[in-house]
Amino acid sequence: MKKPEHGGDVWRYGKAYEILDFSSNGNPLGPPVLLKDALKEALERDIYCFYPDPTYLELKQAISKYLSVAEDKIGVFNGAIEALYLLFRVLNGKKVLLTPPSFTEFWYVANMENLPIEEVPLIEDHDCFKLNEQRLLEHLGGKDLIAILCNPNNPTGTLIRKNLIEEAVGMIRDGFLVVDESFMEFSHENHSSINLIEDHPNLIIVKSLTKIFSASGLRLGVVIASSDIVHKFEALSPTWRVNSLTAFAFSKLLRKTDAVREYLMNSRRFIDLERRRMIKKLRKIGLRPYNSSVNFILVNLCERANSRELKEVLVRQYNMLIRDASTFKGLSENYIRIGLKRPEQNDMLIKALNEVLNPC
Amino acid sequence: MKKPEHGGDVWRYGKAYEILDFSSNGNPLGPPVLLKDALKEALERDIYCFYPDPTYLELKQAISKYLSVAEDKIGVFNGAIEALYLLFRVLNGKKVLLTPPSFTEFWYVANMENLPIEEVPLIEDHDCFKLNEQRLLEHLGGKDLIAILCNPNNPTGTLIRKNLIEEAVGMIRDGFLVVDESFMEFSHENHSSINLIEDHPNLIIVKSLTKIFSASGLRLGVVIASSDIVHKFEALSPTWRVNSLTAFAFSKLLRKTDAVREYLMNSRRFIDLERRRMIKKLRKIGLRPYNSSVNFILVNLCERANSRELKEVLVRQYNMLIRDASTFKGLSENYIRIGLKRPEQNDMLIKALNEVLNPC
Which residues are B338's β-sheet partners? Predict the structure, then answer.
């Protein structure tokens, strides 16, 4: 079984860290100063020489404060993806419901466990991708079903309607609803379902904590669910799974509530403005960007280029990497995904796209 | 299922990093300067903001150089323990052979998959623990068996006879032999079986790369096996499993062959001298330390104390943590394990042990 392709594959082009990377989707503002300071302190104090606390008590206390969830409903993992790899072993479902296009690893982990997949494709409206809510709800009554939604969705950048998750959980008889909220902090509108956990033992939130802080390399993800389910996830996950530097740095960072809130507000404000600006520019050069709530934009190439070829041209000739979105289930070779960067960098991408697609 | 207890549980006592920790077993010399420099460089270059290369090409090249194994026979993991958690799913065995006392997680992972465990206990000779080689070899002919050996063994510190692994692999019909070599670098004698991998597709080496470099918090383990088996391990393990800082730092460190060789030689020389010195001192205060080849010593308390109580007294009254070895399968409450530290620290432990066990 071949692993799915992802953004951020700058390594393949032998110029990691030097490529202008629009293919991954971290925070364009870069990491908060507090995080870098905490990492420096961790190095000075030789924290990496010690095993992390296997119970991750301090880290969970900090996350509890950050997400307003009780500690016993939080599990910590080596990236949100580790939790996804454990999902079907913990939940013991017999079939999976997915809504393509969405995060490719959902398909990978279902295939890993040889589970049949039912699909309720998103509906492409002219400037956005929407859930087919009615068909989704109809499917949820089945037995032993595990439905996975991504909110906001990757790669489309769309939020799920606020009450839909609660309605959906109510429809599930003996299965589970898993919601991946890895991009929720990037959105101005908070549609998080974390507050539903208390009353809904068949709801599981999976979430990256590193993307919004521009720290994907530190690998920290969480599961928010009933304490029983959290315990099962952690029992199957290796001891000391989050490394000492990450545990130390995030324990410090997430306790600084005011500074973190300010960083998040600035990030969202910046992303919101920059996304609107880029959507206009992309339209101007003849492309069809979809509405997004977050830091990346799915773009329809309107048959003006093949996504794989366009990616190769941009990386070879311009040292810029975009995400060929054709590797997402349900998308043709007519789609790319662009992760926002700083305005001057985004402008360079527009210029490059224009040169390639509209040669005079 | 409750996770096994481990050394290094300084966190439980609320004074992490400040306790004198004899319970874990890293390198008493501390990390090589090169490693710390590489981590500093990684921070300065914001490497943690980037996803690691999911193929870990550079890291594998560096490990290949360090261990003299072809890159395609190396899998990298979030600590050796991640590989152990995947073991039975990859190898698809039906029963497990273990030699107590040994690393407690072997039992945990076998129980996790509900596999029956056969045991061939080590034989306690007056100053060492030995494999029962004949009984071990007799068991290996069975069907679908996965035998796990630890070489040198934790917690006894003993090496397995050089030719035994090759004989054992030869006896296996359709099962696998897994050898955990996480402590091999601590020993003056190199009994590694890595060179047998080429000719024996049913041999798998699992190994921590962080213990010897005093960097347990960075979580890096490897599997060395046929490329087919390595691929299966990696397919079941989450993408980006080794974090960016670890991947960067170890890619740098392991390429500096001369400096690493010198660090290893100094470490082994120091450990060898200090272990001999400590064994004499432990005997002098009326305890029975077992011969060890590595950086830790299993000690028989000769019924002068209960291991759990002794641990509590030392941590409360002396701020020193030892490993209560009664949590190892096959050992009674008459055993502790001591990880060597610097001579003056080790002397403090001897003094404390003497005060507690031999009050005047």
Answer: B297
Instruction: Tell me the ipTM for this assembly.
Output: 0.96
Q: Are A290 and A155 in contact (CB under 8 A)?
A: no
Residue with tokens 């952690």: A234
Q: What is the pLDDT of residue A2?
A: 80
Grade residue B173 by pLDDT with cuts at 50, 70 and 90.
confident
Is B3 close to A244, i.e. CB distance below 8 A?
no
Which tens digits make up the pLDDT trace of A147-202? 999 999 999 999 999 899 999 999 998 899 999 999 999 999 999 999 999 999 99
Cβ-based burial of A302 (10 A; exposed 0-12, middle 13-18, buried ≥19): exposed
Selected residues 7-46 of chain B with any CB under 8 Å from a CB in chain A: 8-11, 16-17, 24, 26, 30-31, 36, 39-40, 43, 45-46
pLDDT in tens, A119-142: 999 999 889 999 999 999 999 988
Transcribe A54-82 into DSSP letters: TT-HHHHHHHHHHHT--GGGEEEESSHHH
- The token pair at A212 is 């919004």
Asked if pLDDT for residue B14 goes beyond 80, the answer is no
For chain B, give the number of residues.
360
Q: Which helix (H) or strand (E) holds B223?
A: strand B221-224
In terms of DSSP bridges, do strands A95-98 and A221-224 run parallel, antiparallel, or are they unpaired? Answer: unpaired
Phi-psi region of A79 (alpha: psi -120 to 50; beta: other; left: phi over 0): left
Q: What is the pLDDT of residue B17?
A: 65
* Most distant pair of Cα atoms in chain B: their distance: 63
* CA gap B30, B24 in Å, rounded: 13
Res B13 pLDDT > 90: no
Amino acid at B342: R
Task: For residue A278, report the phi and psi dihedrals to the nearest 5 degrees.
Answer: -70, -35
What are A349-356's contacts with CB under 8 Å, separation 24+? Answer: A349/A20, A349/A22, A349/A320, A349/A322, A350/A278, A350/A281, A350/A282, A350/A285, A352/A314, A352/A317, A352/A318, A352/A320, A353/A282, A353/A285, A353/A287, A353/A314, A354/A285, A356/A305, A356/A310, A356/A313, A356/A314, A356/A317
The answer to whether B143 contacts chain A (CB < 8 Å) is: no
Q: For residue A65, which amino acid is it?
A: K
**Cβ-Cβ contacts under 8 Å, A39 against chain B:** 43, 48
Mean pLDDT in chain B? Answer: 95
Min distance B106 CA to chain A CA atoms (Å): 12
Q: Do B240 and A219 touch (CB under 8 A)?
A: yes
At A16, the pLDDT band (50, 70, 90 cuts) reads: low
Q: What is the mean pLDDT of residues A14-19?
A: 69
- The structure tokens listed for A300 are 């329809």
pLDDT tens figures, A266-279: 999 999 999 999 99
Q: Could you tell me the domains of chain B? A: 9-31+259-357 (3.90.1150.10), 33-256 (3.40.640.10)
